[in-house]
Amino acid sequence: MLDSTGTDVEALLSRRVRHRQTAHEFVRETLRRSILSGELPGGTRLVQADLAEALDVSTTPVREALRDLASDGLVQLDAHRGGVVRELHADELLEIIEIRKILEPEAMKMAVARVTDEVIRRSAQLHQLMEDAESSADFIAHNREFHLSIYDAIGSPRLVAILQSLLDASAMFVSASILSRPDLRLQAVADHSEILDALRARDPEWAARAMLDHIQIPQQVFGVT
After folding, report:
1. Nearest CA among 215, 213, 222 for reference residue 91
2. 183-200 and 204-215 helices cross at what angle (nearest 10)?
3. Mutual orientation of helices 157-180 and 23-36 as an angle, nearest 10°?
4. Based on the number of CB atoms within 10 Å of its own CB, is 103 exposed (0-12), middle (13-18) or buried (19 or more)?
5. Do residues 210 and 216 make contact, with C-beta atoms less than 8 angstroms apart?
6. Whole-number pLDDT of residue 169
7. pLDDT at 26
8. Integer Cα distance of 49 and 218 in angstroms
């Protein structure tokens, strides 16, 4: 069944294979991967009954999954038992980047003051997973965890929650950027290498500058200044 964007949602999702997950996790991760990979573009209608049939689950895990994805900023819920994949707008990206430019360099300075060798080791592992990721969805997931693994060192759950919401709001823009410009994926990996070097050197100013440059990657695609 084609939706208004021309996407055959049921055919696309019916190809997914379930691996040792609850029905809720399976639906959420299937939809997340399809959105971040660009297979479900912005504006795609997500109808609970259709998704449940395509994924061979009841409507309850579909409803729960859509709520999770709405919290992550990937889906907008509607009043008709479903949702719509969020469409991307340059003015929204600009707002997100401006907030991140204020918060994240300072967060990096705080993290450097508290970072442990174990945090750096874990961040380096996530960096390698990003470099090896075969899909854009995996790349985005590891990118998110890379950032959060560093910010967790700050020891401020409230600040980390704010930063996590900004990372989630950025996810679709980052995904769209690397799909449009594959070279930007290499740039992101290089930026993370520099961030890791700054952490190992315990240099807060270097870490802050590296993060500030990294945050602005999507601007190269969406043309916001």
Report:
1. 222
2. 170
3. 50
4. middle
5. no
6. 87
7. 93
8. 35
> Is pLDDT of 163 > 80?
yes
pLDDT at 3 over 90: no
Q: What's the average model confidence in pLDDT over 94-122? A: 96
For residue 27, name the pLDDT band (cuts at 50, 70, 90): very high
Which residues sit opposite 83 in a β-bridge? Answer: 46, 77
Q: What percent of the chain has pLDDT above 70?
A: 90
Number of other residues whose CB lies within 10 A of the CB of residue 1: 12
Tell me the residue type at 70: A
Q: Name the helix (H) or strand (E) containing 52.
A: helix 48-55
Cβ-Cβ contacts under 8 Å for 70 (sequence gap 6 or more): 76, 77, 83
Q: What are the two backbone dihedrals, phi and then psi, of residue 83, each rounded to the nearest 5 degrees?
A: -160, -175
Tell me if 151 sits within 8 A of 166, measured CB to CB: no
47 strand-pairing partners: 82
| Residue 165 tokens, joined | 């919401």
Q: What is the pLDDT of residue 179?
A: 85
Sign of CA dihedral 143, 28, 170, 149: negative
Is the pLDDT score of 225 beyond 80? no
- Positive or negative, the CA dihedral 98, 31, 143, 165 is positive
Expressed in percent and rounded to 5, the helix, strand and coil fractions of the chain are 70, 5, 25
Residues contacting residue 22 through CB under 8 Å, at least 6 positions apart: 61
